[in-house]
Amino acid sequence: MKPMDVQVRPGGEEDLDALTEIYNHYVRETAITFDVTPFTPEERRRWLLSYSQDGPYRLLVAREGGEGPEGRVLGYATSSPFRAKAAYRTSVEVSVYCAPAARGRGVGTLLYEALFAALEGEDVHRAYAGVTEPNPASARLHRRFGFAPVGTFREVGRKFGRYWDVTHYERPVGGVGAAPGGG
């Protein structure tokens, strides 16, 4: 896949069915997400509408083959509130999901490149990601983008009849509102 074959842009209502389908694959087939029941597009609408085209909370979509019905959603990346309390507002939690046929084709890299470029101008100081173990591809992607592991929650989620560990990663973002003398 050449980068010119794929367009990364803000996600919108027209993507809802495809985004739901991608996410439901991970719900049904993997422990990558701890959701256990697939969603309908209508159930995911509120999730989609929680993102904006500017600000720290973004939804970016990678499409191949144009915008019309011939185009195909290959994946998406999000930056979401890390925690609800006000002091956390300069931290975001990020994630990336690729359609099964798009895995290993560089789509996750394209999405994270665009997401972190967008976040550079925002008041975001740190980005966090949780990776269900084992997931060597996700661990590599996050390390490639400057994430470092900060801890592992052991057996924190139960899915498919077993317990799963989640390793948490963090990286600086360098937003516009860095605290003086802060690290």
UniProtKB/TrEMBL annotation:
Recorded hits in CDD domains, A to Z, give:
NAT_SF
**Protein name, UniProt field:** GNAT family N-acetyltransferase
Q: Has keyword Ligase?
A: no
What taxonomic classification does the UniProt entry list for its organism?
A: Bacteria, Bacillati, Actinomycetota, Actinomycetes, Kitasatosporales
Acyltransferase keyword on record: yes
Q: Which PANTHER family match?
A: N-ACETYLTRANSFERASE, UPF0039 PROTEIN C11D3.02C
Question: Any idea where the N-acetyltransferase domain is?
Answer: 6-169
User: Which GO molecular function annotation, any one, does this entry have?
Assistant: acyltransferase activity, transferring groups other than amino-acyl groups
- InterPro entries assigned to the protein according to its UniProt record, in alphabetical order: Acyl_CoA_acyltransferase, GNAT_dom
